[in-house]
Write a structure and sequence with these properties.
The protein is an alpha/beta fold. About 60% of the residues lie in helices and about 15% in strands. The two termini are about 30 Å apart.
Length: about 325
């Protein structure tokens, strides 16, 4: 009986130590979530303005009339190449996941829905061999490597609160691969942050940039001002191509950076929720073990009293 009591007591102490770890991890994730939410709120203003400009340009048919441009030297991005529409032979999939576990169903949801998208694309446009994976996050990279997918690009170690400068080399690699025809269409897949308890999978077409995937002006929440809707006719100086050379890279960066920020926000929320759930489960286990310990202790005491009483009666 003493051995049983000691075993239960060890389990209680072990569970309490685990609970201390999960509580600490929940606090860390909550702090990171608050930090990235503040950062995201300020960035969304910039992203909304960039999207508004691109939407207006699309409405004015400037995207359709822009030239395809020529290849640049010294590895520079062919900006106007983002507008090129080609027969779809290969499809690129940017998958944003975490580099670590303990984030609940965050990674499994992204990977499951991305696989569903890949299956749909493979049936509709390409074979699975023509899918190029661009993995941002170690979990996604390892997942697709194990299944024999073509990994065209891999980036690990995204900061907990990503900085804008982290995105630029990613965007340059993505656009360069598109310009070199490594793929002819590109989707970005990630978990969109809804609230602390909820996230929703998103798959958005990033390249080529067209009026259709940019969005409709009338449906854009920032498309209207006090002065009314903007007219879709523009005079450009020095030229439409020169404007797009400046705006398109910023738009591409805003898409990727916005997706990474959104995904990271969802990751921290999922981690916080998972750790809270683990702490709550630890509470339940401790309560159950404590009850088991008290019953065993009470039984041991009752047995001892019975033995003492019996011995006393025998002596009399």
């Amino acid at each position: 009986m003493a051995g049983s009591l000691q075993s239960v007591k060890r389990r209680i102490n072990s569970t309490k130590k685990t609970q201390q770890i999960t509580n600490a991890m929940q606090m860390v994730s909550t702090v990171k979530l608050n930090q990235i939410q503040k950062h995201t709120e300020s960035y969304q203003v910039y992203a909304a303005k960039i999207r508004s400009v691109i939407t207006h340009l699309a409405k004015s048919h400037l995207l359709e009339s822009a030239s395809s441009g020529t290849k640049k030297e010294d590895g520079q991005i062919n900006t106007l190449g983002m507008l090129q529409q080609r027969p779809v032979k290969k499809v690129g999939i940017v998958v944003i996941t975490s580099d670590r576990g303990l984030v609940g169903s965050y990674n499994s949801t992204v990977l499951k829905e991305t696989m569903s998208l890949i299956n749909n694309v493979s049936q509709a446009e390409n074979k699975q061999d023509d899918i190029v994976i661009l993995a941002i996050g170690g979990t996604g990279a390892d997942f697709f490597k194990q299944r024999g997918f073509n990994i065209g690009y891999e980036y690990r170690g995204v900061s907990d609160v990503p900085k804008f400068k982290e995105v630029r080399p990613i965007v340059q690699a993505i656009v360069t691969m598109y310009d070199s025809q490594a793929y002819d269409k590109l989707y970005v897949c990630y978990n969109h942050f809804v609230n602390t308890l909820t996230s929703a999978f998103r798959a958005e077409q990033m390249l080529p940039i067209t009026a259709e995937n940019v969005g409709d002006l009338e449906n854009d929440s920032i498309a209207e001002s006090e002065e009314g809707k903007l007219t879709p006719a523009y005079d450009t100086e020095p030229s439409g191509d020169a404007i797009l050379e400046v705006v398109l890279p910023q738009y591409a960066e805003s898409l990727v950076y916005g997706a990474i920020l959104d995904a990271k926000t969802s990751e921290h929320a999922s981690s916080s929720t998972a750790m809270k759930s683990a702490s709550d489960n630890a509470d339940d286990i401790i309560s159950s073990l404590q009850l088991q310990y008290n019953r065993a202790r009470q039984s041991a005491i009752t047995t001892e009293i019975t033995e003492i009483t019996g011995a006393q009666a025998a002596l009399e």
